[in-house]
Amino acid sequence: MRIENNSLYYSFSFLLALLLFSCSGPATNNSASEESMEAANSTGEERASPLKTVSGTIGDKTVAVQYGSPGIKGRDIWGDLVPYGEVWRTGANEATYISLEEDVLFEGQPLPAGKYSLFTIPMENEPWTVILNSEWDLEHGHFQYKEEHDVLRVPVTPSWVDESQEWLSIELVSDGLQVKWEKLVLPINIE
Hints:
By secondary structure, the chain is an alpha+beta fold. The chain has helices spanning 2-23, 34-42; strands spanning 51-58, 61-68, 97-100, 104-106, 109-111, 114-121, 128-133, 150-156, 159-173, 176-189.
């Protein structure tokens, strides 16, 4: 009797596992995209700073960027929420990262293909420092940043515009990237 019960138990467990597995649907690709993140947000996984991904080409170079997009939400941004003179993850939550499929010139400096976290050091009245770091998969952004893993540091001069943008965006443009938030536009040249 005991053998039959164990046999019945294992058969039932196997059938239950098979049923659960078959109902879970097909495996999906884990690559991030705006569409997949918007779908995640519509299922109740709402983030205060939505995760965004942009990808495309700059010239003939394939580029992708993933970042958390914080909102102003009535806060003072530059020099307050984002302090001057300190490393900033250039987004929210996990580190912003850039993926390059080919070698590029990044602000005129050679940069091998690969994935890099993107940090900046905002300054009040002088050029910002844009940093690419080899540790690209950091869950907590600048809290895990280590300068010894920097691959490249370049100065970039921001511009300020009249119209304010509520949500941080990183856009691919013909000559590189543009980081935009509040009244800031930070152009980053990539060739």
